[in-house]
Design a protein that fits this description.
Layout: H1 2-18, H2 61-100, H3 121-146, H4 153-167, H5 181-184, H6 188-216, H7 224-229, H8 231-236, H9 240-257, H10 271-296
């Protein structure tokens, strides 16, 4: 429990202090030193013929793959870290708190097969792995996909935490209304407040850890120090289904990068529609969240 408390303190630190940082994406290599075509001798001088504007060349495949591995590593490392220090450790502490406030349920068996009131290393590890790390990876993936449409700084981290609370906490974990553990432990108000705050803090920690780790993660190269920072993605490739998914998405990314006139950044005209879609998604999830809260109570 002390170890879980220290881990949760680290997660709160990341959510409070790092969530104000902006996610810095490595810039593309400067290719401005290429020889100027205008200096080459012309075959024929035809002043009356207008010059065709040179279309921008797509980035090299090696560069595309390097940036893709950067995003995969950032997502993987962020999800594992946030899942460990917030969702996993924090969830274990809350379960211990609810067991302490439910003396009548002592000795009962939970949905996961654990005994209420019994502190075991196996139960803690199981909760952190299945409830923390997997949930952290999912939330980090969602954050990376919708990050361009979130507000900058701490407001964006808070908005992401609220989105997790409204859209996922009552459909997956930890506020799933059909979880029989809410019948065993309580009171319901304490469970709702603590788990709700945990979901918001987890979302803010995901944003903060991503911003902090992104600043320390360069594009992959042959340097030993750089390869060590990409250890999370190498560990991910040891799991065949995940490795296949990463490879397939990589093929799609390379294919899209070959498309002509592909903008390097998201056009500003898509910023407002994307935020409107996120707002509508939050509103659509609100009735289900309210229904789950009423069911738990």
């Amino acid at each position: 429990m002390i170890a879980c408390g220290l881990l949760l303190a680290a997660g709160v630190y990341a959510a409070v202090l790092w969530s104000g940082l902006s996610l810095t994406i490595p810039e593309r290599p400067d290719r401005s030193e290429r020889p100027d075509r205008s200096e080459r001798p012309e075959r024929s001088e035809r002043p009356d013929r207008p010059e065709r504007p040179e279309r921008p060349r797509p980035p090299p495949v090696r560069e595309v793959l390097a940036r893709y591995l950067w995003w995969v590593t950032l997502t993987n490392a962020t999800g594992l870290a946030a899942g460990l220090v917030v969702a996993g450790a924090g969830g274990r502490l809350i379960m211990r708190l609810l067991a302490a406030t439910s003396s009548d349920a002592r000795g009962a068996i939970t949905e996961a097969g654990e005994t209420v009131g019994r502190i075991s290393l196996g139960g803690t590890i199981s909760l952190i792995v299945f409830g923390g790390l997997l949930g952290g990876l999912l939330s980090a993936l969602i954050y990376v996909l919708i990050r361009p449409w979130l507000p900058p700084g701490r407001w964006g981290a808070l908005a992401f935490g609220l989105l997790l609370l409204l859209a996922l906490s009552t459909r997956l974990e930890p506020l799933r209304s059909n979880n029989p553990d809410f019948v065993l432990v309580g009171p319901p108000a304490l469970a709702l407040v603590t788990f709700g705050l945990l979901a918001v803090v987890h979302g803010a920690a995901v944003a903060g850890i991503a911003a902090r780790y992104g600043r320390a993660l360069p594009l992959i190269s042959r340097r030993p120090g750089t390869m060590l920072r990409y250890a999370p993605v190498l560990a991910l490739l040891l799991v065949p289904p995940l490795a296949l998914a990463v490879a397939l998405v990589g093929v799609v990314v390379v294919f899209v990068s070959r498309l002509p006139d592909l903008p390097a950044r998201m056009p500003r005209r898509l910023l407002l529609p994307g935020r409107v879609v996120l707002g509508l998604a939050a509103l659509a999830a609100s009735p289900g969240f309210a229904t789950a809260v009423v069911d738990i109570v």
